[in-house]
Amino acid sequence: MIYEKVIKRILDFLIALFVLVVFSPLYVILIILVRVKLGSPVIFSQERPGKNGKIFRLYKFRSMTDKRDENGELLPDEERLPKFGRIFRATSLDELPEFINILKGDMSLVGPRPLLVKYLPWYSEEEAHRHDVRPGLTGLAQVNGRNTVGWEDRFGYDVEYVRNCSFLMDLKIVGKTIGMVLKRSGVQSGAEMSTIDFDIYRKQQLENKDK
């Protein structure tokens, strides 16, 4: 399809460039706030799988502190997530640096969210199709529950998007995403997913199947 192969990438590039230029003052303000409230580095980066499983480095504003226990070990996420970090996540402002990933071509504005590299060996053949397209800043799963939807449903939405990607679908997803962000719906203050890690979930599935 010409939209998915050509037009979508052009739109992604132009939108990302527009956001980075027009909202550059906002980026500066957020950089200062994060530095004052949470410390440095201001940008959190992590390797994630992109299209065809190719690894790239995803960028976000940090939302947690580096608080540690008496043994020097990092405290649980919830204890390192202050009020400022919760608001940051609830408004999705922490994800603004991902427009750099979109500009570079690592990501798209709409697509399956890029998850952890350690999950790659645990996808079924069907679920792995989520990597047939560039991962997105938002996606079909996000507008159908965001981080409150379970793994099975989430991957179902991802594959559905891959198979039915169109300009109209992307437009609807972007519109719904804006509405959700404004209402702060489907957001939790803890980790990115409210369920257990996918690799642990899949291991438990396999163990139960063998019983």
Summarize the structure.
The chain is mostly helical. The protein has helices spanning 2-22, 24-38, 77-80, 83-90, 98-104, 151-164, 167-183, 198-210; strands at residues 43-49, 55-61, 108-110, 136-138. The N and C termini lie far apart (45 Å).
Describe, in plain words, how this protein is organized in 3D:
The chain is mainly α. It has one domain. The chain is built from 8 helices and 4 strands. It has helices at residues 2-22, 24-38, 77-80, 83-90, 98-104, 151-164, 167-183, 198-210, and strands at 43-49, 55-61, 108-110, 136-138. It has a two-stranded antiparallel ribbon. It has a two-stranded parallel ribbon with strand order 3-4. The radius of gyration is 18 Å and the shape is globular.
Distance between the termini: 45 Å
Run of helices and strands = HHEEHHHEEHHH
Shape: globular
Number of strands: 4
Number of helices, counting only DSSP H or I runs of 4 residues or more:
8
Strand content: 5-15%
Uncertain runs: 187-194
The biggest beta sheet is recorded as: 2 strands, antiparallel
Give helix % range: 40-55%
Output the radius of gyration.
18 Å
What is the total number of structural domains?
1
Which structural class is indicated by helix and strand composition?
Answer: mainly alpha
On the 0 to 100 scale, the average pLDDT is: 89
Strands of the biggest beta sheet: in what spatial order?
A: 1-2
Key phrases:
two-stranded antiparallel sheet, single chain, two-stranded parallel sheet, 8 helices, globular, mainly alpha, 211 residues
